[in-house]
Amino acid sequence: MSNVVVVGAQWGDEGKGRIVDWLAEKADIVVRYNGGHNAGHTLVVDGRTYKLALLPSGVVRGKLGLIGNGVALDPEALLAEIDRMAAMGIRVTPEVLQIAETATLVLPVHRAIDAAQERMRAKPLGTTLRGIGPAYEDKVGRRGLRVCDLAEPELLAQKLDVLLEHHNAWLRGSGQEPFPRDPMLNDLLAMAPRILPFVGRVWEQLDHAHSSGKRVVFEGSQAVMLDVDWGSYPYVTSSSTIAAGAASGAGIAPSHLGRVLGVSKVYATRVGEGPFTSELDGALGDELRERGGEYGVNTGRPRRCGWLDTVQLRQSCKVAGINQLALTKLDVLDGFESVQLCVGYMLDGARIDYMPSTNAEQQRLQPVLRRFDGWVGSTRGVRSYGDLPPQAAALIDAIQNEVGVPVAMVTTGPERDDAIVLQPPFA
Ligand code: GDP
Ligand code: IMO
Ligand code: MG
């Protein structure tokens, strides 16, 4: 058994897409198991940039992609993405993409509710406004629509009525216009013939893959600190982002998941609101943002930047089941006179070595920083550990020691093969 689950180990945008793309060379199948088009996964191949939101990153190599039941699927966004890929020469046909019948649908009403909720919050969460949170609310509220409903026009209309009864009560109660059913219904019915050929039993595909010894990469979206249980609640997304989420969000036994590769930058970023202890507000943060190109893939929002937080990373590895690390964007630290790691927290005058659970405590944390010398020269495109400046190698070693998880890969540029491989990815 040699599957790999790729999990974001920080606040998202760690470079999961490019790691999945790299792994996909030796894999047969890539599976998305959580989130929706709130994700933005970037691949750079021979100078061409592919930005994926819903499609599993293996499609760029023509590998079979599966969208699991745990994904919140906006059919409009999916079709637009398939068309964008086609324009770039990547044909996404039912031979290379299958969608779980039971994946929950993201509808225009969810986008409207997402925006209305954000407007009404005293402290907005800074969501991506894609409707992801409200769609998952409907799923657990047992009034959600699922991909399989697209095949049943009459039931679809009835289910939309039930769903809108719920949302329109809230919209009217908060002085807003109710959401109309018919345009949404008509759009869904118009899209159904394009979506339905992709629909299948993803769990069965994975079962066959397992029994025939195929290699599967599970592509996590978002990250541990955005996980609905383990993230900095309520500043989180609404799905299970961790390795356990891959089992329930794709339909495979936890014991078949294989290795769990956590992806972390060698610094830290966060987009949206919420605590970020090692954040750099001033010129250093701006420099990281500019050098790292830290702007949202889909929303274009500037990402908040700071030093790598090894306390957060260590805890994330434990709760998410991460047993190998891929460290990304080492080249972004080229030219910094010094680099820091957050290696502890001060909370109300006492030193602690864990992330407390309450938002109030998380907001009061002060970072304990450890300084490292920067390096002269470029690590861009370096593919061998021995070719790294000694200061860069020392930083990698220090991260590994603080976090207590082996580093399997270090990336040194956005291109597919700009990477140092320290441990083979498949067992
Ligand atoms: P994801 O959401 O985890 O897949 O990550 P994103 O695609 O949102 O953000 C990662 C960004 O960093 C993308 O623009 C990548 O092209 C870029 N990137 C990934 N790895 C490296 C690297 O090693 N060096 C540099 N300079 N950029 C990288
Ligand atoms: P990838 O897969 C970074 C953040 C949003 C917001 C919070 C909730 O590219 O790493 P949501 O729209 O999900 O309800 O927003 O989560 N967020 C992400 N941040 N990368 C992502 O995905 C994200 N997906 C959601 O900014 O703070
Ligand atoms: Mg991203």
Task: Describe this structure in a few short sentences.
This protein is of the alpha/beta class and 427 residues long. The protein has twelve helices and 19 strands.
Summarize the structure in words.
This protein is α/β, with parallel strands linked by helices and 427 residues long. The protein folds into three domains: 3-103 and 197-256, 3-Layer(aba) Sandwich (Adenylosuccinate Synthetase, Chain A, domain 1); 109-195, Adenylosuccinate Synthetase, subunit A, domain 2; 264-421, Adenylosuccinate Synthetase, Chain A, domain 3. The chain has twelve helices and 19 strands. The radius of gyration is 21 Å and the shape is globular. The protein binds guanosine-5'-diphosphate, 6-O-phosphoryl inosine monophosphate (IMO) and magnesium ion. 6-O-phosphoryl inosine monophosphate binds next to α4. GTP binds at residues 12-18, 40-42, 303, 329-331, 411-413.
